[in-house]
Amino acid sequence: MTFNYGREICGNLSTAQSREWLITNGIGGYGCGTISGVITRCYHGLLIAALNPPLKRTLLLSKLDETIQYDYQTYSCFTNRWFDGTISPQGYLNIESFRLEGTIPVWTFACGDALIEKRIWMQQGENTTYTRYTFKRGSKSLQLSIKALVNYRDHHGTTQSGQWKMGVEEVPQGLCVTPYPEATPFYLWVQGAEVTLNYHWHLGYDLSMERYRGLWDRDDHYNAATFNKTLEPGESLTIVASTNPQSSLDGKQALQERSEYEQGLLKRCSNFSVPWIKQLVLAADQFIVDRPSSQNPEGKTIIAGYPWFADWGRDTMIALPGLTLTTNRPDISHDILSTFAKYLDGGMLPNVFPDDNQTPQYNTVDAILWYFEAIRTYYTLTKDITLLKDLYPLLQEVIECHRQGTRYNIHLDSDHLIYAGQEGTQLTWMDAKVGDWVVTPRHGKPIEVNVLWYNALTIMIEIGDILGQPTGEYKTMARNSHAGFQRYWHPSLKYCQDILDSPNGHDKSMRPNQIFAVSLPHNKTTPPLLKPEQQKSVVDTVAKMLITSHGLRSLCATHHQYQGRYGGDQVSRDKSYHQGTVWAWLIGPFVEAHWRVYGDRALANSFLEPMANHLNDGCVGSISEIFDGDAPMIPRGCFAQAWSVGEVLRVWAKINDPS
C-alpha cells in the first residue's frame, strides 16, 4: 500500500500535524512525531530510549532543526509552535511530500530547484536512531545546518528547564551528552560535519495534544549543538543518536539492514497479497519487544500501545495470535508464552508491569483466560507438544485456583460461573479508574469472563486428550458452566445480559462483550454456549446497535450513560472510555462471529475495509486504540495499538484462508 502525501496534506498544518509516524527498535524504545514536524505531544521525539528494556523509556533526542542555504536563499525545514501560539518557522511549507518506505518515514523538501530527502529509522536491538539526509536534485551545492535539541526525562513528562545545565562535550565525529552525573550518557555523531557546541534552552514548545488531554501543555528542550555540512547533489549526511558508544556510523549500511529486516518480515507472509494487510505485518512487528530476565534472557513481550502503554498481560494475550502467529513467527509466540508463565501467581497473570520495576500488578480477571486461548492457537499452528507438557501443570493450577478462589474475590460460584470483583477494583478489560472512582466496575459475573472460562475448560479437555491425561473432571466442569451460562440470555431482548449478580442486580446494558459467546472457538466435543438462532440474534443486534467503521462501541448510543466524544482531562476521558467509545480490537471477534453465523466472506470483509483507509490517518500505517462513538469517529487514545493491529490481522487471515 502506498502512503504518499503531497502538498495537499503536508502544506495544510492542521492536517499534517494530525498525522503521525512511528519508529521502533524491538527493545521498547521508539521515536514518533507529526508529518508537519510540529511537536504536539510530550511523547514526540527522535530517540525515546528504553534504558531498562522494555521500560524506563526516556526522551533523549527531541528534534533536529534543519536550515538549508541554497542559491543565496535560506529555507527552514522544521516547524515549531510556541506556547504563545506563534508558529515559527513555518518549514512545513517546504515539504514537497511525505511517504512511508516500510515503516521508515521519508520527507522530501523542495528548496528552489533542490530536493532533499530525510529518512528516520532505528537500529533493531539498540537505542539508536538514524536520521539521513540525501541531496537528491540540485544545480549547485547546498549548506545544511542542523540544530540538535536534546532532553533527558521520562517520556510521560515535560521539562521546565530552570537552571539545568547539561554536560555536553565534543568527541571524535560528534558529541557526548551527560545530562547529570548519574544519567546514562548518549551520543550524537555526524561524519564529516563541522560541530559547534551550544549551551542554551529553547523554551515554551506548545503541546496541543497534551492540552486536549487536560495535561500540562508546554515543554523545553536543550540546544546541544549545531552541525554544518556542505552537500553536493547525490551526497548524503547521517546523524546517529545512540546510547551505544560503539554504534555504527555507516548510515547507508544501517538503512540497508533496516530495509532487509522489514523485507524478511514480509517474506514470512508472502501469501498475503493485499497491500494494506502487508503493511499491518510491518506494524505488528513494532509491538514485539524483548523482556529479558535472569530466568529467561531471551524473553519476549508485547507493548500494548504507542506512545504511552507498557506491556499488559491482557493485551499481550489478545494481540499475540495476530501479531505473531498470523505473521508466521511462532518462535516469538513461544518466547512470550514462556516468559509470561514465569509470572503466574495465584492462578493469575499480571495486568501490567510498572515502569519502575515494582511488583507486577495482578488486577485482571481475564488476562489468564486469554492465555489459554493464546496457547490453543499456538498449538493448533505448531503442534509443539513440548510446550504443552511444560505448561499443562500450570494450567491445572490456574483452574484449581479459580475453583478455590483467588485475589479480588475471583471464584467459581455455586452456579458454576466465575464471580469477580470487590469494592474499588476494576478487573475486566473495561477498567477505567480515576482516583477511587471505578467508572465501569462490572462486579459480579461479566459475560466475556464466563465465555473465556468455558473456553478455558474446553481447552483443558483438548490438551488433556493430546497428552493422554484424564479429562473427566474438566468435562463435568464444562457441562456445569454451559448450563449456568444460559442465565445470560434475555428472551425478550433477544441478546445476552452483560453482567449477572452484580451488587445492583443483572445489567442488561447493550455492550459488545457478548460477541465472544459467538466468536470464540470451542472443543468439537463440547457444545457452543448459544443456540444457532441465539448466535444470529446476537450478531444482528450488535451490528445494528454497536458497529462502526472502525470497531464496536463499548455501549449503545441509546443508553443514558452513552458518551459519544472522547477527550478532555482524565476524568472526562475515563468517563467516556468504555461508555460509548469505539474500540478497534473488537472488530476482530465481531467479524469472526459474523463469518461463523453467515459464512459470507465478502460480507465479512466489508466490515474490515474501512480499516484500510484508516491506515492513512492517525499513525500512518498502523491502527489506533479507540475512536469517538459519534461520527466522524475521529481516532483517539494511543495512535498505534497492539490488539487493534493483531485482531485485524488475525481475523482477516482467518476469513480469507483459502483452505
Automatic annotation (TrEMBL):
Domain Glycogen debranching enzyme C-terminal, first and last residues per copy: 283-650
GO molecular function, one term: amylo-alpha-1,6-glucosidase activity
InterPro entries in UniProt: 6-hairpin_glycosidase_sf, 6hp_glycosidase-like_sf, AGL/Gdb1, GDE_C, Glycogen_debranch_arc, Glycogen_debranch_N
Glycogen debranching enzyme bacterial and archaeal type N-terminal domain mapped to chain residues: 19-238
Domain of life of the source: Bacteria
GO BP field: glycogen catabolic process
Family matches, as Pfam families: GDE_C, GDE_N
Listed PANTHER family: GLYCOGEN DEBRANCHING ENZYME
Protein name, UniProt field: Glycogen debranching enzyme, archaeal type
Species, as recorded: Crocosphaera watsonii WH 8501
